[in-house]
Write a structure and sequence with these properties.
Blueprint lengths: L2 E5 L6 E5 L7 H8 L4 E7 H17 L3 E7 L8 H14 L6 E6 L1 H13 L5 E6 L2 H7 L4 E6 L2 E8 L4 E4 L9 H18 L1 H16 L4 H20 L14 H10 L7 H20 L3 H11 L12 H4 L15 E7 L2 E6 L3 H12 L1
Parallel strand pairs: 2-9, 3-4, 3-5, 5-6, 6-9
Antiparallel strand pairs: 1-2, 7-8, 10-11
Helix pairs in contact: 1-2, 3-4, 5-6, 5-8, 6-7, 6-8, 6-10, 9-10, 10-11, 10-13
Bound molecules: nicotinamide-adenine-dinucleotide (NAD) and zinc ion.
Zinc ion binds next to helix 10.
Amino acid sequence: MGRTVEVKLGARSYPVHIACGLLDRVGELLVEIAPCRRAVIITDDNVRALYAARLASSLAQAQIDSLVISVPPGESSKSLETLAHLYDEFARLHVRRDELVLALGGGVIGDLAGFAAATWLRGVRFVQVPTTVLSQVDSSVGGKVGINHPSGKNLIGSFYQPLLVVIDPDTLRTLPSAEVWSGLAEVIKYGFIADRSLYERVATDIRALAAEPGSSLWEEILARCCEIKATIVQSDERDLGLRHILNFGHTLGHALEAATGYNRLRHGEAVARGMVAALWLSHWLRAFPEEELEASLQVLEQFPRPELDDLVAREIVPHVAHDKKGTSAGQKWVLLDRIGSATVIQDPPAELVVQAAEKMLR
Ligand SMILES: NC(=O)c1ccc[n+]([C@@H]2O[C@H](COP(=O)([O-])OP(=O)(O)OC[C@H]3O[C@@H](n4cnc5c(N)ncnc54)[C@H](O)[C@@H]3O)[C@@H](O)[C@H]2O)c1
Ligand SMILES: [Zn+2]
């Protein structure tokens, strides 16, 4: 069947196609949207072994030559060193502006390849083929690209929209279970902030979704998440207002990641805990109803998480102040009035934040 979500951004508009088996049809989709003779596939060593040959053969069927550049898997590849390596390869291969850069992989590859494409020759055409839950529902849509600086995550970057996003839910079948759960945290986040029925569907089936990535239920859910992200991005492409609600659960989630040196929890695991804190704050400050709080907490308790017993709430909270999303005026927090209805508040009382962080650690 398949679904298509349009991201409507005037001259920078693009379709997001979602369907099982689409990996074998990327070539034909490109011929319609971005005809070219040659494409550079950027991927990581895990994804290369699984999917690069299939992508290349789909391009070959459409008379598009391809080259593969693979980098080591993991967050450490979102670095200036790896970026410099990509530029060296682009120079060696004489990559031109009428050619294509294709990101095949998770959010690390999308962010890195997208930033390389945005900056090489002031912009080479760019296509996303995301292969993790997180990248299929979040990072591949919306045009944020970038790398890390030794002093912080995602500090170097740009807004650069792709020409096309191709999502094949079948690729999730090879994803390690912990990565599936991590992505499910972002999925349920969309339900919390914008769509009560999405929340209910995911909450009811969360174990089945985690156990069977790529099933037909997934196609529908991925499409709904992309639709929500597209709507938010359309009204705030450059993250000056509404886009902030995507940060639900991320304020203390990021602080938890920072306090643990970014190596104890996956991003989604930290966000799941951050949402626990945000739900309590919503209850205390926005009269978020008790029965919704209890039901939501029960869902979030099903997410896997490492031991956090040695952590102290008061030591985590100061990391909030260093969050990149903060301004000199303070921190914005995303809270809920009801499931499906988010609101942004400025600097909740410090003591309540500590209490929420305690709930998050338990
Ligand atoms: N640009 C944005 O708007 C945005 C939004 C959210 C997150 N991000 C970024 O995304 C990154 C995290 O992305 P991620 O969670 O996708 O991590 P990732 O790209 O590191 O992928 C996770 C792991 O899964 C492996 N993998 C990927 N696809 C696979 C598949 N189909 N089968 C088997 N293994 C597979 C990868 O090799 C890697 O080891 C972070 O750097 C974060 O900052 C960006
Ligand atoms: Zn996130």
